């Protein structure tokens, strides 16, 4: 039975709420007047991301690893599972923990959703498509994933999490939603987390050469975080139980992205080429027809606008970090 909410705001649990996407989601949902319970183990999350909400009467922080079962006092209407390191550098530091986060974490949150009669959304990923053999990935594509490579803990973890969500949705009476998220960027993305947009911007701002892996001709699609957050909220509110792609279909090579960043930062940085990591996908481009049809959603922020806002955020963040590191009295 779906929960009937008689309060005029919802109680929303965001696992991974101190991370990049999770903290942007916290901000949007707090601004909409909801009560937020942020659950995070701070593996990759940062207290700076949630500092603006810590004193808010509608914000509660619980430091907890979702690999362990959790109980929450009081009602919970919705759960967003955003908890999992998303940067390959970070999720490969503890691959078994990444598998556990994806499987046990999802299981523990699904059990919580079942007990609370809450609706639950899984942040899945385009990585479930692996290194795709088709150029435009729609949700019916079953993927090309290596089960025994360095990315497998994340890719296969996310695949089994989708299966768990599907099972709980189909047979255990839980209202489940699955978002297949493609590369997203924007404010609150850790400057050191190793993803391409943050790498390029930080390197350009520091006047260092931008590191390009392989030939730089591999492609990615980049979605600005406010667009993604909007899509997640729409998906949660929808009746759709099957996976939905959320991403920006604009496709760019790594060299095109590097060129844009250097130009926008007005940097003189060049490019250094490094070998392509194992199993790095050659291309990524979402087909978002289902998101358009079912959710009435499509991204609004183009790459130039999104990069401009993101560069500004990194400029301020690096300046604040520098100030914090400067010896007292300087
Ligand atoms: N950002 C993207 O481009 C992208 C793309 C596809 C999918 N996703 C998915 O979206 C979600 C959020 O990604 P992000 O970019 O914000 O990553 P992130 O690393 O910035 O945030 C993840 C958050 O989850 C927390 N976390 C990790 N493991 C945990 C655990 N076991 N228990 C409790 N907290 C835990 C981290 O401390 C962090 O706050 C992830 O599930 C990721 O797989 C993101």
Automatic annotation (TrEMBL):
Annotated protein name in UniProt: SDR family oxidoreductase
Its membrane topology: Single-pass type II membrane protein
Localisation per UniProt entry: Golgi apparatus membrane; Golgi apparatus, Golgi stack membrane
InterPro entries: Epimerase_deHydtase, NAD(P)-bd_dom_sf, UXS-like
GO function terms (MF aspect): carboxy-lyase activity
Residues in NAD-dependent epimerase/dehydratase domain copies: 12-246
Cited PANTHER family: UDP-GLUCURONIC ACID DECARBOXYLASE 1 (PTHR43078:SF6), UDP-GLUCURONIC ACID DECARBOXYLASE-RELATED (PTHR43078)
Major localization listed first in the record, in broad terms: Golgi
Swiss-Prot/TrEMBL keywords: Decarboxylase, Glycoprotein, Golgi apparatus, Lyase, Membrane, NAD, Signal-anchor, Transmembrane, Transmembrane helix
Cofactor(s) listed: NAD(+)
UniProt cross-references to Gene3D superfamilies, sorted A to Z: NAD(P)-binding Rossmann-like Domain
């Amino acid at each position: 039975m779906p929960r009937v909410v008689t309060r005029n705001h919802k109680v929303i649990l965001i696992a991974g709420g101190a991370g990049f996407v999770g903290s942007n989601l916290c901000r949007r949902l707090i601004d909409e007047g909801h009560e937020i319970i942020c659950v995070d183990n701070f593996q990759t999350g940062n207290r700076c991301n949630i500092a603006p909400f810590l004193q808010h009467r509608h914000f509660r922080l619980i430091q907890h690893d979702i690999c362990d079962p959790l109980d929450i006092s009081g009602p919970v209407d919705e759960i967003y599972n955003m908890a999992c390191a998303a940067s390959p550098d970070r999720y490969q530091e503890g691959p078994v923990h990444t598998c556990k986060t994806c499987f046990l974490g999802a299981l523990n949150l699904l059990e919580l959703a079942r007990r609370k009669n809450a609706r639950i959304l899984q942040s899945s990923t385009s990585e479930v498509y692996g290194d795709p053999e088709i150029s435009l990935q729609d949700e019916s594509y079953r993927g090309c994933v290596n089960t025994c490579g360095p990315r497998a803990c994340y890719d296969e973890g996310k695949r089994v999490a989708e299966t768990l969500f599907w099972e709980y949705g189909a047979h255990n009476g839980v209202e489940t939603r699955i978002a297949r998220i493609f590369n997203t960027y924007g404010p609150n993305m850790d400057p050191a987390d190793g993803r391409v947009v943050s790498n390029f911007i930080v390197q350009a701002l520091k006047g260092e050469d931008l590191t390009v892996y392989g030939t730089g001709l591999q492609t990615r699609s980049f979605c600005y975080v406010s667009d993604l957050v909007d899509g997640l909220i729409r998906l949660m509110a929808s009746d759709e139980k099957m996976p939905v792609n959320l991403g920006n279909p604009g496709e760019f090579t790594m060299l095109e992205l590097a060129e844009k960043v250097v130009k926008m930062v007005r940097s003189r940085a060049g490019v250094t080429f490094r070998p392509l990591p194992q199993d790095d996908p050659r291309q990524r481009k979402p087909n978002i027809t289902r998101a358009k049809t079912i959710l009435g959603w499509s991204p609004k922020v183009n790459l130039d606008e999104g990069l401009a806002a993101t560069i500004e955020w990194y400029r301020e963040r690096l300046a604040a970090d520098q100030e914090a590191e400067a010896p007292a009295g300087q």
